[in-house]
Write a structure and sequence with these properties.
By secondary structure, this protein is α+β, with helices and mostly antiparallel strands. It has 3 helices and 11 strands; from the N terminus they run αββββαβββββαββ. A 9-stranded antiparallel sheet has the order 2-3-9-11-10-6-7-4-8, with helices on one face. It is globular.
Length: 197
């Protein structure tokens, strides 16, 4: 009987912990976009220009790019800048993974679209504004890995071909959750497309 109470207590603590994590995710500022059209299995979005902090790497897989890039960018927003200013974490974390080199970007809070961003201490961090772009987006849950990313990238590419939507080169992986969030995880693959409204 004691073992049952301990198990129930542990389950309760776990659920409370996850609830707080989910609340924290809800409060996280997310990159702005506008849904242009919903299709079966994916949607078309317009992403306006946003300020990005980006790190480039020679990594050619999810694990290598995410571990090295995240640490550098996290250090920057947690005060690793000339102004020693803390910058709020946003979602998603954006990764472009290719066999010719990859990148990871943090979207900066919207307030930095109008005001100066602190200067990174790390010279490998590049600050720039993204170009306004139309993307097709597909979502999946759970923890991401190279196999899942490839499956959903192929799936989205096939649906775009079926709908005669012209894709541009490359794709991006978007991760919305911290590693310690075990449930309710959201991931996306987005592909730049040619689109006229």
């Amino acid at each position: 009987m004691k073992a049952v109470y301990i198990s129930l207590l542990l389950i309760g603590i776990y659920l409370i912990f996850q609830s707080f994590k989910l609340i924290g995710v809800v409060k996280t500022e997310k990159q702005v976009y506008r849904v242009v059209k919903k299709e079966t299995g994916f949607e078309i979005r317009f992403y306006p220009s946003a300020t990005m902090a980006t790190v480039y790497s020679k990594g050619d897989n999810y694990k290598s790019v995410s571990s090295s890039g995240f640490n550098k960018l996290a250090k920057f927003i947690f005060g690793g800048n000339q102004e020693k200013e803390s910058i709020s974490m946003t979602a998603p974390v954006i990764m472009r993974i290719t066999d010719k080199g990859s990148s990871m970007s943090f979207v900066m809070p919207q307030k930095y679209n109008e005001s100066p961003l602190p200067t990174p201490n790390d010279p490998q961090i590049e600050i720039k504004k993204s170009q306004p772009t139309y993307f097709a987006a597909i979502s999946f849950s759970g923890y991401a890995n190279d196999e899942k990313i490839a499956v959903y990238q192929d799936k989205l590419a096939a649906m775009l071909k079926e709908k005669n939507i012209i894709r541009k080169e490359g794709f991006y992986f978007l991760g919305y959750n911290a590693p310690f969030q075990f449930v309710g995880r959201t991931n996306e693959v987005i592909i730049p497309i040619e689109w006229i409204e």
